[in-house]
Amino acid sequence: MTVWDDGAPPGPPAVLVHGILTWGTDERYGFAAQRPLARRHRLLLMDRRGFGRSPGLVRPPGEERDGPTSDYATDADDIVQLLGDGAHLVGHAYGGVSAMLAAARRPDLVRSLTLVQPGALRPAEGHPVVAAALKRARASAAALPADLTPGDFLRASTEGIGLEMPEPTPERLRAAATCMRERPCWDAEIPLAPLAAAPWPKLLVSGDWAGAPALYKEYAGDALVACAEHLATELGAEHLVVPGYYPHTQQPEQVNAALGALWSRG
Questions:
Q1: Largest Cα–Cα distance in the chain?
Q2: For each of the chain's 266 residues, which pLDDT tens digit applies?
Q3: Could you tell me if 175 and 51 are in contact, meaning their C-beta atoms sit under 8 angstroms apart?
Q4: If 0-12 CB within 10 Å is exposed, 13-18 middle and 19+ buried, where does residue 56 land?
Q5: CA angle centred on 104, ends 98 and 110, rounded to 5°
Q6: Is there a contact between 38 and 189 (Cβ–Cβ < 8 Å)?
Q7: Among 72, 74, 163, 244, which one is most buried in terms of CB atoms within 10 A?
Q8: Alpha-carbon dihedral of residues 164, 167, 169, 173, nearest 10 degrees?
Q9: What pTM was estimated for this model as a whole?
C-alpha cells in the first residue's frame, strides 16, 4: 500500500483499488492522477496481491502450486483490513468487483462506494450485450494457450484490441503474469442487496467511449456501459459519464471533483 497524505486534515481515509495490468500508483492505468485529492483526504493506494510491491497469494499447504496467484475474494479480505475503522472506497475494473465484495461484507466500515467501470458483468447478464460479452470472455479464457508468456498476454490485452501496448517493464510484466492466473472478475457472484440497502452514498463512473478503438469498444466498452447502468439502478447510485474510455486517467479533473463531492457527504 502507498499512502498519500499531502497535508490532508484528519478524517476518514479513502482506499483505492486498481484493475488489471497495473498497480496503485501507476500513471497509465492506476490512480496517479488522483494525487491532488491527497490535499484533503488521506489516500491509501492498494497494490493487489501479485501486483506492484505486494507479494502473491499465499496458498495453504496442499493446494496446487499452479493455482491462482490472486483473486477478488482475497482482495476483499485485504480491503476490509485497509478500511480500518471506516473509509471511503473506490474500485476500478477488477478492483471494482473486489471493492463491491468487501463493501457487501462489511458495510459498517464503508463511508462511500465509487465504482469506476467495474468488471462486474455477471449481475447484469440479463442484458443481451452483457450476456454476449460473458460468453465471449469465457470462451477466450478457456482457449488461452498453455505456453502463453506475460509479454504475449500484455500484447494481446492491448494491441490485440486496438490499444497501444505499454512498455513491457518488469513491473508491467509481473502484473500481466498475475492477470493470466487470477480468477476472472467478470464471473464473480456479487450480493447486491447489502450494497443497495447501505445508507452511504454510491457513485458509478463510466466513459462515453468516444474515441475508443472500435474493437475495444465492441469487446469491452458496450458491456461495461450496460453493466454500469444496471448497477447504478440496482444500487440506487449516481452515475457520472465522462468523455473517453478510461475515466480516472483521461478525465481526472471531472472524476476528482466528483470524488471530492461524494467524500464530503460520507
A1: 51
A2: 999 998 877 779 999 999 999 999 999 999 999 999 999 999 999 999 999 999 886 554 444 444 455 699 999 999 999 999 999 999 999 999 999 999 999 999 999 999 999 999 999 999 999 999 999 999 988 888 889 999 999 999 999 999 999 999 999 999 999 999 899 999 999 999 999 999 999 999 999 999 999 999 999 999 999 999 999 999 999 999 999 999 999 999 999 999 999 999 87
A3: yes
A4: middle
A5: 90
A6: no
A7: 72
A8: 20
A9: 0.94
Q: Specify the DSSP element, H or E, that contains 225.
A: helix 222-235
Grid cell, residue 127, equals 442484458
Residue pair 165/158 in contact by the 8 Å Cβ criterion: yes
Grid coordinates representing 135 are 460468453
Q: Which residue in the block uniquely carries the three cell numbers 456501459?
A: 225
The DSSP output letter for 3 is E
Q: Are 248 and 34 in contact (CB under 8 A)?
A: yes
Q: Which are the contacts of 157, defined by CB distance < 8 A and separation ≥ 6?
A: 20, 21, 176, 179
For residue 47, what is its C-alpha cell? 497494490
Residue 72 DSSP class: H
263: Cα within 13 Å, side-chain hemisphere: 23
Give the residue carrying C-alpha cell 491462482: 68
Amino acid sitting at position 244:
G
